[in-house]
Design goal:
Elements: H1 3-29, E1 38-45, E2 51-55, H2 68-79, E3 86-91, E4 94-96, E5 99-101, E6 104-108, H3 121-131, E7 136-137, E8 141-144, E9 179-186, E10 194-199, E11 206-209, E12 212-214, E13 220-224, E14 231-239, E15 243-250, H4 254-268, E16 272-273, E17 278-280, E18 289-295, H5 299-309, H6 312-323, H7 332-343, H8 369-380, H9 385-390, E19 414-421, E20 424-432, E21 438-446, H10 456-470
Parallel strand pairs: 5-7, 6-8, 7-16, 8-17, 11-14, 12-14
Antiparallel strand pairs: 1-2, 1-21, 3-6, 3-18, 4-5, 9-10, 9-15, 13-14, 19-20, 20-21
Length: about 475
Amino acid sequence: MHRRAAYILISVVLVTCVRAYADNIDIFLRNPITQYANIGISIVNLTTGEQLASYRSDNLIPPASVIKLLTTATALEVLGSDYTFPTVLEYSGTISDGVLRGDLYIHGYGDPMLGSGSQTFLTDWVRAVKQAGISEIHGCVIADMSLFDGDALNPGWLFEDAGNYYAPGIFSIAYMDNTLNVQLRSGPVGSVAQVIRTIPAIEELTFENHIRCSQIDYDGAFVHGLPYQQVRYLTGSIPSNHGLFGVQSDIPNPGLLLAQHFTSTLRRMGVTVTGDATYLSETDRIRRTELYRHQSMPLSYIVRKTNMKSVNLYAEMLFRVLGTRISVPGTIHNADLFIHNYWKNRAVDISSAILKDGCGLAPQDGISADSFVQLLRYMDRSPQREAFYQSLPVSGKSGTLTGFLAGTPLEGRVHAKSGTIAGTKNFAGYIEMPNGERLAFAILVNSAQGKARNIQPIIAKYLLDVYQSNK
């Protein structure tokens, strides 16, 4: 074939591809749900390096939970997949004849999953206290939450979210996922639901309850409250005549609750504690001695839980811990600064990104589709690749992507993080092609008309078209 003929053929193929991708993007631009939305799209073939699609790819768009990719990737790169978070038991004063004349401290270092699912570790802690020769504590059990600053409620979050399970206070001690289950008894239509109990029980907690029982078949209840404050406001409605009905809230002070549970476990196992459990949020500078060191699950496990189930608490804890790499106490500002500085010389351009948190709950967050694809490309070559990749939900199979692309040719081929807030639906991750090639993609759709769930089929159709065009 002559050189000119070959050039013409290549040109025709390229024009055809460009037109195909333009038609694909028209899926968004011609749909009444997304035609006026803020959209950013970037798709790169990781095998060939070819940019397959790009549409306003440098636009800053609220990422919602897709920002967890940046948070977890940074944590893996900085700390390593085998890293474990310590929680350290320390004591002040002296031990003599089995008596600790001083206080016993629980010093938190940001373990996101302490007490998640099981609290049996408390018996191990008591055994450690006994092995140190302590049978009486003439003092208190104190939860030390001084590693993070006192800004437990992220100022970038909406006030209406505060007190809900997905927007708990962020302390350097997390406990039982900082989640409280409020058990209600549903009655006749129009009646006020009765608060029966909470799991776990918190004696100091009170409720201002305005939840009505109504003719609905879903959870329409909301919880409002601030960190440290032992009152929660219940509003909205739940199904009538439903018997017991659970509503999730946050734990106002997880460190204090942990100290209380540890105190009661000590007493139950034969160790006298004279004082009441308490907490501190600033370092008291009292000299202490380490007694026992509890280690968390490996970071790879925590990251997998974070991305698979999109757990805001875990991501935000990792974000705050990264802030401590600059100074202690860790702050939101320092976490933002550290992440920006870390990626500056690593071929991941987030210089224009706005990071108000690490989980995506802040509506002011902004990042581009290109930034996500650059991050995905970097992590694909990283020593932390496997831990990062295995943390991502799989289309039609697992996590938050269980229902996404199920029953289509892309079922099981997309490993990605989703993000959802009002009018926003985002996805970023990898596509495994039949020929062995891998694509990195980010599709961010913000300020669309209607509910976020109506955007998902449009994104699915676009990804299927891209897949068919490249397989």
